[in-house]
Amino acid sequence: MRARAARVLDRYVVREFGTIFGITLLGFPLLTIAINLTDNIDRYLSRGIPAQHIALAYLFEVIQQVFFVTPAAVLFATVFSVGAFSRHSEMTAAKAAGVSFHRVVAPMFGLAFLASLLTFVLGELAPLANERRAVLLGERERRSQTTRHNFVYRADGGRVYAIRTLSVRQREMRDVQIEREGTGPEFPGYFLTATRASYEPGTGWTLGAGTMRLFLGPDREVAFGFDSLRQRAMAERPLDLLAEPKAPDQMRYAELGHYVRTLERSGSNADKLKVERALKIAIPCTCLIIALFGAPLGMTGARSGAAYGVAVSLATTFVFLIMIQISRAIGAGGVVPPLLAAWLPNGIFGTAGLVLFVRART
Fold it and tell me: What percent of the chain lies above the pLDDT cut of 90?
């Protein structure tokens, strides 16, 4: 009988939490999108963009907006639902029946964990959705051609390609320059030029009729010419070279990690990118931290009504966003290790939330 009552209580808590969470999760993004669409619809139509493309583009925009608002939605749902339980004496009734405050809010942490997983998945999908949205709205050209002229491509290992002509169909390049900065004899820099390059799927790129200069250190240089040179480090296929380089915020977690390792191998400072990569895990975990922090706050402001819940939720979100920006800056500047900088806001809010949670009257 007691177990059945507990299941009924859990379903009730899940329903109340889920209702507020769903309204917040969809309400804020739709409001933001409606305002943005109102401001820009004339500009899109003047470009001749079809209405269906505009609609699809804003559908992709929902992914990015929901990613940003999910932690705030967890906070709103926690504060409002716990506050409502207290105002309506439901929390008192649960305690009288021998159910503690910690047990009542336990299902919220399960939902917060699911929200964390949702945030991580959306964070991985958002770069792809943003790229697709930019193409639909004409903000980025979709490369459908098979040739590209006079462009620069930043590759792995700190290498930079300057290419006059690329033909995907013929799998060749003309007038190629490859440059890599080095750190010394162990990782020498070099500058390579070739009049042509051809690609074979099994062997990769082979450069022809060129010269190569190796920079082994101050005043130490070796140069030689070649008729044919195979570049195993050039792992890019011809089709890959058609793609526009991605900014760090357009990369998923694995891509960003690969980019960080590339910069480190070339001797560059990758602290800023390390912070961004760590935040891709830290921000989803915010949902759990914010639930731990918000549950006791909902109890303390039960008598203040909905206005208190709105004020506390907005103020907490604002402070947390400021802390993330500060942690980004100090991590990128090398003041603290990047991993510590990314997790610092979670650590502060998590500690405060744990203290409030333990001290809450059960």
Answer: 12
